[in-house]
Amino acid sequence: MKYLEATDIIGTDNVENAKKILHFILYVSVFFEIIYFPSFPNILGCLMSWIVLKVFCILFTKENVVLFPFSFAMYLSMFLYRFLPLTATLMEGKPISYKMELAYSTFTLETLLFLIGSLAFYYASQKRSNNKLQLFLAKQHFYQITPPVLWMMGAIGVIVRLATFANTAETGDVGGKFLVGLTYFQLAPLILFCPDLLRIKGAVNRKFVVAFLILVTILNIASNSREAIVAPLFLLVLLSLLWLIKARKKLTDFISPTKFVLLAVGGYLILGLFSNLSLAMLATRTTRGDISKSELFQETLNVLEDKAKLQEMENISKGLKIELSGNETYAYGGWTEEYLDNFIMNRYANMRVTDITLYYASILGYSNSHMLESMFDQILALLPDPLLKVLKINIDKDQLVYSRGDQLYNLATHSPSVLGGFRVTSHVADGLATFGYWYFPIQFILWLAVFYLLNSFVFFINRQVLYAPFALINLFVFLGRFRNAGGCFGDIGYILRGFWQSIFTYLLVFYICFYVLKLVKNK
Predict the structure, then answer these.
(1) Whether residue 169 has pLDDT greater than 90
(2) What single DSSP character describes residue 460?
(3) pLDDT band at 105 (very low <50, low <70, confident <90, very high)
(4) What is the pLDDT of residue 16?
């Protein structure tokens, strides 16, 4: 059914206010950047931030957020990667070009890549009717859910989290990988915090949801996974923002300006706490395989209270990020991701990774045959072993246990020993090193496909939209779909396998929960 009028379901000032806030942050940041760090590279970094904000605001509409929230979340991450570095580095007393060696290329190419991503999102957001995939998923009840099923999914997720504490999933066996793929179900009950997004009627006790949030957070701390501890809280924030826009609610209807400022300060302090918690996890990581999870949890808390130990770990952490043979320049064969001190911001807004990967890509040369061959091997490795046997393709997956960043670093420095270090890489450097300038049209096609797939998590009916519960659970994951990791190979992997595998496992668990609850009810 074709979608008719977006203004029928949306129409608040939240989006426009957000744009004004973003512009205010930008202009203040540019002012102080020029005052304290006047240089041509930093001015170019400011120009990049200004361009991406202007383009982002064109596509940042109430209609796009409500109709395509999951692809917009990925597009938002593309924007934040280029927008946050300016303000984040200033807050730490650094210029946006902090220790960069190819700042001009970094800022120029990242701006170009953002324009390509914006064009892909624009074209993907033009289609506002259900395709065959959406109709098929609707027949499988993919867009429907009940609170009992969500709670049972959450219980399964918690059980799987406890089961994987033994690290059995790290051995690479099929069963272990399958279990790891189910851990996200522990977040399922959290979407009940905004039941209107699921069109669930009746009262929902949010106190139970908050209690479950605390339980999941404690389990994730014990798991020694830094990203896992922030995922539940950030998911609630994203769900709440989506609900505010969709439900035509103003933030000021719930929070006064004073409370908003207090929440902002509290959020900043929480980020600091998470940063310290990250250091505490690093301090205990070497022993996590030798002690029980309860002991690991207690040890993490002990380190968190030890300021001297935290400072020691911060120094060690910075040192581990730098492999420079005594000289802090890339020319000495070094690899560093040092940019922002806060691990959360450093994960999602690390422009230095683009700089160093572009440096090694320039040494290696664009359109490198070894990078291309490695890409094809890794794509083939995505296929299940039975299918590879049918196609008579012989490939040793054990020999491909390395990242795209490892391969780039290995070929540029002739250091095979670095394989297996799982270094992250930037999209643009990995793409240029692999495909040359053909990378840009290739990336456009890949992103267009990814956006179309993410848009399939929304179903249009009766001039309204239904959100797939699976997608709401993974909203924070979609926000991180664009970040420094595996370059465009991550997009290829999602298109060929990740998307379809995630839907299959979700529907499998959904039907198990549905029929078990139905059986219990009948008894």
Answers:
(1) no
(2) E
(3) very high
(4) 87
C-alpha to C-alpha distance for 498 and 360, rounded to whole angstroms: 29
How far apart CA 41 and CA 98 sit, in angstroms, is: 10
Which is nearest to 426 in space by CA: 515, 338, 360, 510? Answer: 360
379-387 CB contacts, 8 Å cutoff, 24+ apart: 379/489, 379/492, 379/493, 379/496, 382/492, 382/493, 382/496, 382/497, 383/497
Q: Output the CA angle 269-270-273, nearest 5 degrees.
A: 90
Q: Give the helix ranges, DSSP H, for 285-437.
A: 293-305, 307-320, 343-348, 351-364, 369-380, 385-390, 404-413, 427-435
> Number of H helices and number of E strands within the chain?
24, 2
Which of 468, 353, 467, 474 shows the shortest CA–CA distance to 405? 353
Q: Say which amino acid occupies 65.
A: V
Report, in this order, helix, strand and coil percent for the chain, each rounded to 5.
75, 0, 25
Which residues in 156-305 belong to E strands, given as ranges? none
> Residue 56 has which token pair?
């982002």
Burial of 354 (0-12, 13-18, 19+ CB in 10 A): buried
**Taking the complete model, does pTM exceed 0.70, yes or no?**
yes
- Tokens standing for 416? 């095979």
- On the question of pLDDT at 166 being above 70, the answer is no
Q: Residue 459 is inside which H or E element, if any?
A: strand 458-461
Distance CA 137, CA 206 (A): 29
Instruction: Report how far residue 155's alpha carbon sits from residue 496's, in angstroms, rounded to the nearest whole number.
Output: 30
Residues 6+ apart with CB under 8 A from 473: 184, 185, 187, 188, 190, 191, 235
Query: Could you give phi then psi for residue 458, rounded to 5 degrees?
Result: -120, 135
Taking alpha carbons only, the member of 299, 305, 319, 297 closest to residue 276 is 305
Q: Give me the sign of the Cα torsion angle 432, 434, 436, 438.
A: negative
Q: How confident is the model at residue 1 (pLDDT cuts 50, 70, 90)?
A: very low
d(CA 4, CA 400): 49
> How many residues appear in the chain?
523
Burial of 243-259, coded b for 16+ CB within 10 Å and e otherwise, reads ebbbeeeebeeeeeeee
Give the SS3 label for residue 92. Answer: coil
